[in-house]
Write a structure and sequence with these properties.
372 residues; Aspartate Aminotransferase, domain 2; Aspartate Aminotransferase, domain 1; 2 domains; globular
Length: 372
C-alpha cells in the first residue's frame, strides 16, 4: 500500500458535482475573467478570514508583489527596508523583490518552531530602521502555524513599520489572540496553488486587507491600472484571477474547516503514538492557537537514510526547503542567523498530512515511524 503525499483528485471528487452547474454557466456566458464568481469567492474568503476585503489574483507570487506595491508608492526607491525570514519558499523574496528592486533586504533566521525569530527581528529592526524612510516586516506563517503576530505588531508599532503577512501556508490558522492568519497585518498575501490547504486547479492567489485604499489600489494594479474598461488610472499588470479558478476555490472553501480539522486529528494521532528518539516530531508553538498543518515536518540526523526507509515502505515524502534563502546565489540580502535554518534545511523531511488519509494509512505511518 503506497501512501500519497497529497491527494488532489480526492479534493476534486468532493466538489466536482457542486462545481458542474457553475462551470457550465461560465462557458455559456463566457464570463472567464473577473466574473461574478470571482466576486462571490472574494466575499466568502473575506468572511472566512474575518477581514473587510479580499482581492483575487493570478498567483501567490503575484499576490506578494501587489500587496507590497499597495503599501509604498515609490517602488524604485532605495530607501525601503524589508525583513523576511530565511526559512521560507523563494517566492516570498521574489515577489517582493520584483515590487521593490532597489530595496534593502535582511533575512532573519527561524526559531525552534520554524517561524521567524522574533528576538533577532526586534534587534535588527531597532538597529537599521532609522536609516530608511520605509520599512516592511514580512512574517511568514510557515507549515500551517502562525507567527507570534502580537509581538510582530508591537515591533511594527514601536518602529513605524508596515506588516505584509505571507499567509500562503496558513489558510484558516488562528493565533493566540484569536486572529485568523491574514487578518492582522496591513495587507496579506495567500497562495492558492493546487497543493495548498485551499488550492485551485492551477495557479491562483488572493490578497486580504482591512484598508479600503489598499483594496482599491490592488484592484487597479491587478487589471492594467483599470476598473472601467479602457480607462487606466495607474501603471498596472495582468494579474487577474480566472473565474474558473474562483468557482473551484469557492466550493473548496466550504470544506476547508473540515479538511483542516482532519489534518489536526491525523497529526495528533501520529504524534501521540510514535515514540522514537531518532525522529523529532513537530510541536505547535504557544503563539499559535489553531494550526492547519499544511506541512508535516519531522527532523532526523540522517535524512538520506530516513528518506530511503520511507521510500522502501512506500510512504511518499518531500523536503521543505533543502536550500534556505541565504544559500541561494541570486538573493541580495544580509543574513542574520542563529544556525537553525541551515541545520533544519539538512534535517527536515515532510510527511503526508492530507485530509484524505485513511485509518489504515495512518496506522501504517505510525508503525513505520515507530520502527525506524
Amino acid at each position: 500500500m503506497k501512501i500519497k503525499f497529497n491527494d488532489l483528485n480526492a479534493q476534486w471528487l468532493a466538489v466536482k458535482d457542486l462545481c458542474k452547474n457553475d462551470i457550465d454557466s461560465l462557458f455559456q456566458n463566457s464570463d472567464f475573467i473577473l466574473g461574478k464568481k470571482v466576486i462571490d469567492f472574494e466575499e466568502n474568503f473575506s468572511k472566512f478570514c474575518n477581514v473587510r476585503y479580499s482581492i483575487g489574483v493570478s498567483s501567490g507570487t503575484d499576490a506578494l508583489k501587489l500587496a507590497a506595491l499597495s503599501l509604498i508608492n515609490d517602488h524604485m526607491s532605495n530607501d525601503i527596508l524589508i525583513f523576511i525570514p530565511t526559512n521560507t519558499f523563494v517566492a516570498t523574496y521574489i515577489g517582493i523583490k520584483d515590487a521593490f528592486p532597489n530595496a534593502k533586504f535582511i533575512l532573519i533566521d527561524c526559531d525552534d518552531f520554524y517561524q521567524i525569530d522574533i528576538s533577532i527581528l526586534n534587534d535588527q529592526v531597532k538597529k537599521h530602521r532609522k536609516k530608511f524612510k520605509n520599512c516592511i516586516i514580512v512574517p511568514v506563517h510557515l507549515y500551517g502555524y502562525t507567527v507570534d503576530m502580537n509581538k510582530i505588531k508591537n515591533i511594527a508599532k514601536e518602529n513605524d513599520c508596515l506588516i505584509l503577512e505571507d499567509s500562503s501556508q496558513a489558510h484558516g490558522a488562528i493565533d493566540s489572540d484569536n486572529n485568523m492568519a491574514g487578518s492582522s497585518g496591513d495587507v496579506s498575501a495567500f497562495s492558492l496553488y493546487p497543493g495548498k490547504n485551499l488550492g485551485g486547479a492551477g495557479d491562483a492567489g488572493i490578497i486580504t486587507t482591512n484598508n479600503k485604499n489598499i483594496e482599491e489600489k490592488i484592484k487597479l494594479l491587478r487589471n492594467y491600472g483599470s476598473i472601467k474598461k479602457y480607462e487606466h488610472d495607474i501603471f498596472g499588470f495582468n494579474y487577474r484571477l480566472d473565474t474558473l479558478q474562483a468557482i473551484i476555490l469557492d466550493q473548496k472553501l466550504t470544506y476547508l474547516n473540515i479538511w483542516n480539522k482532519k489534518r489536526r486529528e491525523i497529526i495528533k494521532k501520529i504524534c501521540l503514538n510514535v515514540e522514537n528518539e531518532k525522529i523529532i516530531l513537530p510541536q505547535t508553538p504557544k503563539y499559535c492557537k489553531l494550526p492547519v498543518h499544511h506541512i508535516f515536518p519531522v527532523r532526523v540526523k540522517d535524512r538520506n537514510d530516513f528518506i530511503s526507509y520511507l521510500n522502501n515502505n512506500l510512504i511518499e515524502n518531500g523536503i521543505h526547503y533543502p536550500i534556505p534563502l541565504n544559500r541561494l546565489s541570486f538573493i541580495q540580502a544580509d543574513f542574520i542567523d542563529n544556525n537553525k535554518s541551515n541545520l533544519f534545511s539538512e534535517q527536515l523531511v515532510s510527511l503526508p498530512i492530507h485530509p484524505f488519509l485513511s485509518d489504515i494509512e495512518i496506522e501504517k505511518m505510525i508503525s513505520v515511524l515507530h520502527k525506524y
